[in-house]
Specification:
Number of helices of chain B: 10
Low-confidence stretches of chain A: 92-109
Number of strands of chain A: 0
Oligomer: heterodimer
Structural class of chain B: alpha+beta
Order of helices and strands of chain A: HHHHHHHHH
Order of helices and strands of chain B: HHHHHHEEEHEEHEEEHEHEEEE
Radius of gyration of chain B: 43 Å
Mean pLDDT of chain A: 80
Shape of chain A: elongated
Number of strands of chain B: 13
Strand content of chain A: under 5%
Chain lengths: 183, 340
């Protein structure tokens, strides 16, 4: 957890404090982006872009508020921009890799942990980017609905509604697939 | 076949079941294998979802990022302070812009309009006229528009000129029609005045128009001379025209220079020549056929030049109906058009 003094010196562009910030959040941001893109190199580049943008705009940050949602907001904008520009390219990469994995392991009677995660990733990739982000931020990053709403620039009820509705659909789809495999 | 408690499974997972319903759902789970299996599956999925991607693909690029941001030369300390007070700055800037627009933009527009305008009374006033009323000395509103509807140019606006100095005899009670109080810039000023004691000034000549006793005065300030130089044309509007051109405490040359800028367009002005000493100074520059120089209005060192208007009654002060007048602000030429 970064303390307030660090945040204040960070806001003034202090490099050491920024190094601290990178240490603390780089991995989280990388996996957040990787979950969205499913491409390691791209995620690494986008993570770098995110932190450079954070530094360039750090004077806009208000240290009275937690920094994590603010960081995710910048990452979200960068990823969304990227996804818009590379829509087709990304879909090809992610789906093909997931489907191959599943086919190779089809002979087993039940889904292994890795298979389940691959399947989940496939389902996640099929969701719209903003829905995917809500689910990732809520379930994996443990952010509150208020924080997610801030990141996505949406209202809290709308985020809640989208989260519960799509999570249910996601689970139902996977469960359906699991039942088929068991049969 | 699906179980009736199936929909409760999702609520249970999301911790949305109330105490009683939760207890009932627990009881149901111990008897229903389908629901139990389903719950287990969902828990598994939830767990997988929470864990996310297990690929160990992360590789820190902190050094790259730090190298990149070290090149930033901006002063974040100042930027951050400025950013925090941006709202008051924006508000102040907006207020200042509005203030400057109010202070400078409207007068500038008016100035340009006046500069370009050639006022002609042949245009009737429209309802959107910017000027209608001025207060008289008793504080009553005088409706100029009603008195002289055809002589108030559409774009004319009232200025203010409360002190009229030496004009006690005339007792101007109204203020500037148009013009500027700063003599350094003034070219032409127009007043509308109510002569209180005309009879004394004009040898007991009763001069009136049908709407009251109003006098319009046009003053010109020669550009080439000192700012005190004034030449003045006064005329009664609407019914009679009476024109005097005079200068107060100025050289005769100054008056003449002013006179050069004045034109009477009525071609029939001739006859009744009565030149005196001043006329000889005016010499060939003005057509002597059109004027009489007189000391009869010698009040406080006035010099007067009287224009004779053909077709008017043959008294000392010839009268004629004024058809219209116009002022060209670029050339400072005032054009008075009399009726035949």
């Amino acid at each position: 957890m970064i303390n307030r003094n660090t945040l204040i010196s960070l806001q003034k562009g202090d490099i050491d404090s920024f190094g601290w910030l990178v240490n603390t959040y780089e991995k989280k941001i990388f996996y957040f982006i990787y979950n969205m893109t499913r491409n390691r190199d791209m995620s690494q580049d986008l993570t770098q872009d995110t932190f450079i943008k954070i530094y360039k705009n750090i004077y806009k940050y208000n240290p009275d508020y937690p920094i994590e949602p603010w960081i995710y907001k910048i990452a979200h904008n960068i990823v969304l921009d990227f996804l818009k520009k590379n829509k087709n390219k990304l879909q090809e990469v992610s789906l093909s890799s997931c489907i191959n994995n599943i086919k190779e392991n089809d002979i087993d009677s039940s889904l292994s942990d890795i298979e389940l995660k691959d399947l989940l990733q496939r389902e996640l990739q099929s969701l719209k980017p903003d829905i995917r982000m809500i689910i990732i931020l809520r379930i994996q990053k443990d952010l509150s609905f208020e924080q997610i709403a801030f990141i996505l620039n949406k209202s809290v009820p709308s985020v809640k509604l989208k989260f519960y509705r799509n999570k249910k659909i996601l689970i139902q789809n996977i469960e359906k697939y699991m039942n088929e495999v068991v049969k | 076949m699906s179980c009736i408690y199936e929909k409760d499974i999702y609520k249970f997972i999301d911790d949305k079941l109330s105490g009683k319903r939760k207890q009932r759902f627990y009881n149901h789970l111990s008897t229903c294998k389908t629901c139990y299996q389903k719950l287990e599956n969902i828990k598994l999925i939830n767990k997988a979802l929470k864990e996310g991607i297990s690929d160990d693909v992360f590789e820190s690029s902190k050094d790259k990022i730090i190298t990149e941001v070290k090149n930033e030369k901006r002063n974040y300390s100042i930027l951050s302070k400025l950013y925090r007070i941006r709202k008051p700055i924006y508000s102040t800037a907006a207020l200042l812009i509005i203030f400057f627009m109010i202070c400078f933009f409207k007068p500038l527009i008016n100035f340009i309009q006046y500069k370009n305008a050639s006022y002609s009374t042949s245009n009737n006033i429209k309802s959107g006229s910017s000027y209608v009323k001025i207060p008289d000395i008793e504080g009553n509103n005088i409706d100029i528009k009603k008195l002289y509807p055809s002589f108030i140019p559409k774009k004319m606006k009232l200025g203010s000129r409360t002190s009229m100095g030496n004009y006690v005899d005339m007792e101007f009670i109204s203020n500037d029609f148009l013009g500027f109080n700063d003599n350094n810039h003034i070219d032409i000023a127009i007043y509308l005045g109510k002569p209180n004691n005309w009879n004394n000034l004009y040898n007991n000549k009763d001069i009136k128009n049908s709407n009251g006793e109003w006098l319009i005065t046009v003053e010109t300030y020669p550009k080439s001379n000192n700012v005190e130089s004034i030449a003045r044309i006064s005329c009664i509007l609407n019914d009679n025209i009476y024109i005097t051109i005079c200068g107060m405490d100025v050289s005769k040359d100054d008056i003449l220079k002013c006179l050069y800028s004045l034109k009477i367009t009525d071609k029939k002005l001739k006859n009744d020549i009565n030149p005196n000493g001043i006329l000889s100074i005016i010499g060939p520059k003005l057509n002597p056929n059109h004027m009489t120089i007189t000391n009869s209005i010698n009040v406080l060192n006035y010099y007067g030049i009287k224009y004779k208007v053909t077709g008017a009654s043959p008294n000392e002060y010839n009268t004629k109906k004024l058809k219209n007048f116009s002022i060209d602000f670029n050339t400072s030429v005032i054009t008075l058009v009399a009726e035949n």
